[in-house]
Amino acid sequence: MFSIGIDFGGTKILIGIINQDGEIIKSIKRNVPRTKHIDEIIELTSATIEDLFSDSKISLSNISGIGVAAPGIVDADKGILIYAPNWSIRNFPIKKIFSDKYSMPVKVYNDVNAAAIGELHFGHGREENSFFWITISTGIGGALVINGELLLGNSGLAGEIGHIIIEDNGPLCKCGRKGCLESLASGTAIASLARKKIKNGAVFQKIDPKINIDEITAETVIMAAHADDGEAISLLEEVARNISKALSYVVNLADVDLMVIGGGVMESNGLLFKFIDKNMKRYVYEYDQRNVKLARPALGYNSSLVGAGALILKDKNL
Ligand SMILES: [Zn+2]
């Protein structure tokens, strides 16, 4: 049995054929059309699904369903993308579109929850049946798996660690409130923290002084820190303290030990990982009685794609 997994990112679409062992038989990556118009996105997705099967021994008749990881707030019961800020759309019926077209079961989860599902069935979850997943990229998302089950909550918003308020009157978050973790520790926040520090006179030794300040990204800061730039290192330490603080709330509340940290900001970022780890001890209640561990995703960049496939493969009702 196979499924199709679709991982819709803000800028990339990854589509793959997944087998029952969570292996990606074949996958294709495409850029989201520049217009980000939903009709074009869906058209490109359908064309890519055709390409996927064009020179494969597997045909659509071998597929038991389509799992979708979508970038935004999702009503998983109805299969509706309620809001995708990157694509500027609301209330889009993803499930209906694909089930009408392919006449097979379709399941839709938010991409962060899908990543946790991927890890649950085919990654860290094989060793630990409770863990917390956190994505640190342009935004911050999280998903809580307890005793082998993903916790969705009443509104499907369980695990939204990015919008825990860490600092009263901190920077404005895109959710409209101030001082959320996302506004202090996402990739976007790292870049704007660096710009603010430079405007206030800080000197980053390993950032080109001629760079246009608006061109500074999280990657600029992360590379500088890894080149031993003291200012960049202390910026990452500050970011790490906020992430550790938020993760400590999860540990204290849910008593889970394993934190799986994914997302673009963590790639090639051993320092941030190390600083988060160091600070957990400071914030977690009864740290010595627990076995708190940080880990990278066992499925690498493919957690959401494999998780999307697993939505179908592991659904006992299908
Ligand atoms: Zn927020």
Name of the CATH architecture of the largest domain = 2-Layer Sandwich
List the bound ligands: zinc ion
Oligomer: single chain
Give the beta-strand count.
13
Helix/strand class: alpha/beta
Q: Indicate how many domains the architecture comprises.
A: 2
CATH topology of the largest domain: Nucleotidyltransferase, domain 5
Q: H/E series, N to C? A: EEEHEEEEHEHEEEHHHHEHEH
Uncertain segments of ≥5 residues (pLDDT<50)? none
Distance between the termini: 12 Å
Figure out the total of helices. Answer: 9
Task: Assign the CATH superfamily of the largest domain.
Answer: ATPase, nucleotide binding domain
Main β-sheet description: 5 strands, mixed
Anisotropy-based shape: globular
Strands of the biggest beta sheet: in what spatial order? 3-2-1-4-8
Protein name: Glucokinase
Pfam family, one: ROK
Family: Belongs to the ROK (NagC/XylR) family.
InterPro entries: ATPase_NBD, ROK, ROK_cs
